[in-house]
């Protein structure tokens, strides 16, 4: 009979729909310079599917609970690098972190990344980060005439710097670096990774120049090999290894 | 449901000192990088400093552990160390060389390490300048005094 099946499906939908949802507390670091000079923690209780991402939780808060919550996100799929934040004390992309992987029985803390000026809530001023990026000249530099066809490269030559091409400039590594926290003059892991990408590119001819830049007092020698950057990288780049390779290139260049 | 544990509004009766036209100051990170920052010095000082730390560290492991073994463990331990013991050891050029090398390497290694710490933690240029000057003065004084003593040591001082 149609009515009974309707009732049944309605009943089952009612009992099943919330069954996969769990209650999660989001503890978000809020800062609004137009209200107070102090940053505070604010708790939000959400009914959410544990298979959803932290970014979905932030969306839920912004769309359904508190529209003043401010954070960056663009593609929401781990490519644009806009939504790096400190989740449960670790730098991650909110769009690549599943709630079930975070022990949702405890409050999930969400903070802005460290070492950069917090402008509002989870939004930081990325300018010093991009200044360091620009300072290593992250573009192809060649001498002589432009070839009439593409610049060819063997598969092995491409493999040499493959790892560092994966960087999405999310600043998770740089803002996890204790040296960078204390001294913003240090280039930081991300800038060195992007210099590495061109230093070890066989088509590029300005490797010497970039090595010279990174040889300076705020360059690779300030790296303390704490591996925070490698742990933080959402793309799985071996950041510390890349920094060490630049150091090795500098030493073998001298001796 | 949003359950506030703490309000973002100023505690003073909901009256905020700051508004849209008068926002609170933001907290700048220490020694922020700007367009004017890159001042390339084009020296290899940091490279040599880094290498020196590694190489002197390896040599110091041997020198310091050997020193501690001789002074504190072997042949009666620390109780044997006295004027006569030191005089006896410094009669040999080998031990003079050992102690001289240990003094120089340990002092420069430690001074370079402290220089790194100052670079990491001192934020204001003046603090950095004075802390480093103090460090360099202390290092030069200790190294020179130690060297002087090793070379001019007179066992018949009395």
TrEMBL record, chain A:
Coiled-coil parts of chain: none
InterPro entries given in the database record: 2Fe-2S_ferredoxin-like_sf, 2Fe-2S_ferredoxin-type, 4Fe4S_Fe-S-bd, 4Fe4S_Fe_S_CS, Beta-grasp_dom_sf, Helical_ferredxn, SDH/FRD_Iron-Sulfur, Succ_DH/fum_Rdtase_Fe-S
Domain 4Fe-4S ferredoxin-type as annotated: residue spans: 157-179
Pfam family, one: Fer2_3
SUPFAM superfamilies: 2Fe-2S ferredoxin-like (SSF54292), alpha-helical ferredoxin (SSF46548)
Co-factor(s): [4Fe-4S] cluster; [2Fe-2S] cluster; [3Fe-4S] cluster
Enzyme Commission number: 1.3.5.1
Single GO MF annotation: 2 iron, 2 sulfur cluster binding
PROSITE patterns for the chain: 2FE2S_FER_2, 4FE4S_FER_1, 4FE4S_FER_2
Alphabetical UniProt keywords: 2Fe-2S, 3Fe-4S, 4Fe-4S, Iron, Iron-sulfur, Metal-binding, Oxidoreductase, Tricarboxylic acid cycle
Swiss-Prot/TrEMBL GO biological process terms: respiratory electron transport chain; tricarboxylic acid cycle
Cofactor note: Binds 1 [4Fe-4S] cluster. Binds 1 [2Fe-2S] cluster.
Protein family per UniProt: Belongs to the succinate dehydrogenase/fumarate reductase iron-sulfur protein family.
NCBIfam families recorded: dhsB, PRK05950.1
Name this protein carries in UniProt: Fumarate reductase iron-sulfur subunit
Source species of the chain: Streptomyces netropsis
From TrEMBL, chain B:
Primary location class: membrane
Domain of life from the UniProt record: Bacteria
Gene Ontology CC terms: membrane
Cellular compartment(s): Membrane
Pfam families named among the record's database cross-references: Sdh_cyt
Gene Ontology MF terms: metal ion binding
Transmembrane segments: 51-74, 94-114, 134-153
Keywords attached to this entry: Heme, Iron, Membrane, Metal-binding, Transmembrane, Transmembrane helix
InterPro entries, per the entry: SQR/QFR_C/D, SuccDH_FuR_B_TM-su
Ion transport listed as a keyword: no
Repressor listed as a keyword: no
The protein, known as: Succinate dehydrogenase / fumarate reductase membrane anchor subunit
Organism: Streptomyces netropsis
């Amino acid at each position: 009979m149609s009515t009974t099946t309707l009732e049944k499906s309605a009943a089952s939908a009612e009992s099943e729909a919330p069954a996969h949802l769990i209650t999660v507390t989001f503890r978000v670091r809020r800062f609004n310079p137009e209200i107070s000079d102090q940053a505070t923690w604010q708790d939000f209780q959400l009914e959410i599917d544990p298979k959803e991402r932290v970014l979905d939780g932030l969306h839920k808060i912004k769309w359904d609970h508190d529209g003043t919550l401010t954070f960056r996100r663009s593609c929401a799929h781990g490519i644009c690098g806009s939504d790096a934040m400190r989740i449960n004390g670790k730098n991650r992309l909110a769009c690549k972190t599943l709630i079930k992987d975070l022990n949702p029985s405890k409050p999930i803390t969400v903070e802005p990344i460290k070492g950069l000026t917090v402008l509002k809530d989870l939004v930081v001023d990325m300018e010093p980060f991009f200044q360091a990026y620009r300072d290593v000249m992250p573009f192809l530099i060649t001498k002589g005439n432009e070839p009439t066809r593409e610049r060819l490269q063997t598969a092995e030559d491409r493999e040499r710097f493959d790892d560092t091409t994966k960087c999405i400039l999310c600043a998770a590594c740089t803002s996890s670096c204790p040296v960078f926290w204390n001294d913003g003059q240090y280039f930081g892991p991300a800038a060195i990774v992007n210099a590495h990408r061109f230093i070890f590119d066989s088509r590029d001819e300005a490797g010497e120049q970039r090595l010279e830049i990174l040889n300076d007092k705020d360059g690779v020698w300030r790296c303390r090999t704490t591996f925070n950057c490698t742990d933080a990288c959402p793309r799985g780049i071996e950041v510390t290894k890349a920094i060490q390779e630049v150091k090795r290139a500098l030493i073998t260049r001298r001796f | 449901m949003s359950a506030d544990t703490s309000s973002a509004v100023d505690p003073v009766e909901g009256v905020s000192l700051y508004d849209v036209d008068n926002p609170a100051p933001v907290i700048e990170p220490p020694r922020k990088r700007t367009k004017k920052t890159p001042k390339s010095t084009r020296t290899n000082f940091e490279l040599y400093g880094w290498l020196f730390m590694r190489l002197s560290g390896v040599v110091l492991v041997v020198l310091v552990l050997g020193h501690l073994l001789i002074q504190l463990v072997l042949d009666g331990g620390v109780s044997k160390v006295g004027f006569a013991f030191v005089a006896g050891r410094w009669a040999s050029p080998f031990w003079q060389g050992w102690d001289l090398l240990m003094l120089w390497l340990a002092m420069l290694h430690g001074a370079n390490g402290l220089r790194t710490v100052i670079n990491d933690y001192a934020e204001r240029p003046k603090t950095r300048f004075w802390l480093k000057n103090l460090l360099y003065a202390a290092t030069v004084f200790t190294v020179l005094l130690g060297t002087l003593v090793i070379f001019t040591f007179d066992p018949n001082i009395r």
